[in-house]
UniProtKB/TrEMBL annotation:
Residues of the SMc04008-like domain: 30-95
Tree of life domain: Bacteria
InterPro entries in alphabetical order: SMc04008-like_domain (IPR023163), SMc04008-like_sf (IPR036810)
Organism: Lysobacter niastensis
Membrane-crossing residue ranges in chain numbering: none
Annotated protein name in UniProt: DUF1244 domain-containing protein
Region (Disordered): 82-103
């Protein structure tokens, strides 16, 4: 790995940490379903990608461990404190977004 590659990796890691901080501390009110509707990914997707990246490097990680890295607390705790029941409007928007991106 060259010094430039290392620096790029450090910058990417810092940006990822900032995204997590934003989602955990500044915008825990933004629901995962809204992220899925508007961005096509959510905190759970991030935790899956995190776990997959760890496994590609030979690090075994459970789904719960990866989610705790993304949520900053155990998923059950975050869910109890922040997750609301999806509204009919959110569910309809999610279904529409899924149809649009499938085909």
């Amino acid at each position: 790995m060259t010094e430039t590659d290392f620096e790029t990796t450090q910058i990417e890691a810092a940006a990822f940490r900032r995204l997590l901080q934003h989602l955990m501390q500044e915008r825990p009110d933004v629901q995962n379903i809204d992220l899925m509707i508007h961005a096509g990914f959510c905190r759970n997707c991030l935790s899956d990608w995190y776990r997959e990246a760890a496994e590609q490097r030979g690090i075994t990680m459970t789904k719960d461990e990866a989610r705790e890295q993304v949520y900053g607390v155990p998923f059950a705790q975050w869910k109890a404190e922040h997750q609301k029941e999806a509204t009919p409007e959110q569910l309809a928007a999610f279904e529409a977004a899924q149809r649009q991106h499938r085909g």
